[in-house]
Design brief:
Blueprint (H helix, E strand, L loop, with lengths): L6 H24 L7 H8 L6 H34 L11 H16 L4 H24 L7 H23 L3 H12 L7 H4 L3 H13 L1 H7 L3 H6 L4 H23 L5 H13 L3 H26 L7 H19 L6
Helix pairs in contact: 1-3, 1-14, 2-3, 3-9, 3-12, 3-13, 3-14, 4-5, 4-6, 4-12, 5-6, 5-12, 9-12, 13-14, 14-15
Keywords: Cell membrane, Membrane, Transmembrane, Transmembrane helix, Transport
Subcellular location: Cell membrane
GO molecular function: transmembrane transporter activity
């Protein structure tokens, strides 16, 4: 794979993803448990809800918006994580960041009775940050420091431990167990603007930090010694980029629950399109993540119609075989 794909190919990939995203948004508003006519779609988009069809369209608009925002955040966070750790298996779920965010939210609900989306977001960001620091500290133990293999193992172990703590917190609380279990699956159903607006500032800051870290990630890809020789302060560059992923993952988890594999699948596919240059890879991964999560939501509505499958289930079905394929393709020294 070349470091940088030719400009026409990168431009074509960008416009193709934008077109795909627009088409998926149209499908998301159209497809559901109830068929809607073109006139109902237009009226629903205009804010009318006089008929059942118009009301259905009006409800699908924030759902579509949340899927786009959360998918963009997870796709971008995965690309940044893989760049920071130089680990092809890095993913907000595999490295335990999403699980840390979920544990913080569950503890907040169970012990501190938090109910607002703002409290969810702050709790999730704090949990994601603590989990990221813990995984990196565990992965850094030993002579060779934080190798990709040790980070993957530390993240997996941390994720399992934190998931067990979530069960321990929820188990004695029958009053919240049902809602927490449903939220843990990960989904965008029931989205509303009140649920979306509080996460936007965190998403915007995380997006800006992540995109601004593109040049540093290109330097880190050459190795720590080479990056330092180019004038980069390696620990600062890693911490700056990691902050963006923590904000993105925390906000996405607070709004949708922990959704796995988006941050693993999307960066790998996008590298095939645009190469390894993070100045292109990061925005393309954001678009790819939005497309993937939106497509998963649409498929979840079609497969179980008139019921629905949450996007977390659909992405797990797709992501688990993809994860196995990546593990088989990568040599141990590259992990």
């Amino acid at each position: 794979m070349s470091v940088r794909a030719p400009l026409p190919i990168r431009s074509l990939a960008l416009f193709s993803l934008l077109a795909a995203l627009a088409g998926l948004c149209a499908l998301s508003v159209t497809i559901g448990s109830r068929d809607v006519s073109w006139s109902e779609i237009v009226a629903g988009l205009a804010g009318h809800n006089d008929t059942i069809g118009e009301a259905a369209v009006a409800l699908r608009v924030p759902r579509t918006l949340l899927a786009v925002i959360a998918g963009s955040a997870l796709g971008l966070a995965g690309a940044v994580m893989q760049g920071v750790t130089r680990n092809p298996l890095a993913d907000p779920g595999i490295l335990g960041v999403n699980t840390g965010a979920a544990l913080a939210v569950v503890v907040g609900v169970a012990w501190f009775n938090i109910v607002s989306t703002e409290a969810y977001v702050w709790s999730a960001v704090a949990g994601a940050g603590c989990s990221a620091v813990l995984v990196y500290a565990l992965g850094s133990v030993g002579r060779d420091g934080a190798t990709p293999l040790k980070l993957a193992l530390a993240g997996t172990a941390t994720s399992i431990a934190l998931a067990s703590l979530i069960i321990a917190v929820v188990l004695p609380r029958n009053d919240i167990a049902g809602g927490i279990r449903s939220w843990q699956i990960g989904g965008v159903g029931g989205a509303s603007y009140d649920r979306i607006l509080p996460v936007l500032p965190f998403m915007a800051v995380g997006l800006a930090i992540s995109l601004l870290s593109a040049r540093q990630l290109n330097s880190l890809a050459l190795g720590d010694d080479m990056a330092a020789g180019l004038g980069e302060r390696v620990p600062v560059a890693r911490a700056f980029a990691a902050l963006g992923t923590i904000l993105l993952c925390g906000a996405a988890t607070a709004a949708c629950g922990p959704i796995g594999f988006v941050g693993l699948i999307v960066p790998h596919l996008c590298r095939l399109l645009v190469g390894l240059d993070h100045r292109w890879l990061l925005p393309i991964s954001a678009l790819g993540g939005a497309c993937l999560l939106l497509l998963a939501d649409i498929l979840g509505r079609i497969i179980a119609r008139p019921a629905e499958l949450d996007v977390g289930i659909v992405t797990a079905f797709v992501g688990a075989p993809f994860f196995i394929w990546i593990v088989r393709q990568q040599r141990i020294r590259q992990l």
